[in-house]
Amino acid sequence: MWILRFWKGCTVRCGFCAFGKDADDPDAYILDDEAILAKAQGAADNGAREFTLMGGVHPDADIDYYEHLLLLLKGEFPEVMIHGFSPTMINDAAVASGMDMAEACEILKAAGLDTKF
Ligand code: SF4
Q: Which ligand 1 atom sits closest to the C-alpha of 86?
């Protein structure tokens, strides 16, 4: 399993976690598509057969964004299993997209999320 942290930053501030940062914090980051694919290729070259996508709760992330990430990775690595996104991440993105969790999960599964719900 390989864990891709595609951004560091989170609107939630759990006391035990270093991901809780504002977008303008110097320690926050978000990876663009090129960087994500480069990291994924490196993992695949080292034998990764499963990607776990994790990040904080991004204030601007909607379901379209997560769908894009899945289509991006599945397009390049169709044989790799993809798990990821916390329930909080999906819930906040579903709210931002004006849909319920069930609809959001169906969209993500159709885009390549292999996590069983
Ligand atoms: S990334 Fe998860 S654990 Fe960390 S602050 Fe955000 S919600 Fe909490």
A: 2
In a domain, 111, yes or no: yes
**Tell me: the pLDDT tens digits for 30-59?**
889 999 999 999 999 999 999 999 888 888
56 lines ligand 1 (CB under 6 A): yes
13 CA closest ligand 1 atom index: 5
pTM of the model: 0.89
Q: Is 17 in the pocket of ligand 1 (CB under 6 A)?
A: yes
Q: What is the pLDDT of residues 105-114, one digit of tens each?
A: 999 999 999 9
Decide if 1 is inside a domain.
no
Q: Quote the ligand 1 centre to 21 CA distance (angstroms).
A: 10
State the total domains in the chain.
1
Distance, in Å, from the CA atom of 41 to the CA atom of 30, rounded to the nearest integer, reads: 18
- Cα(20) to ligand 1 centroid in Å equals 6
Q: Is residue 25 one of the residues assigned to a domain?
A: no
Its domain, for residue 48, covers: 32-117
Report the interhelical angle of 87-96 vs 101-111 (nearest 10°).
110
Closest CA relative to residue 31, chosen from 64, 59, 2, 54 = 54
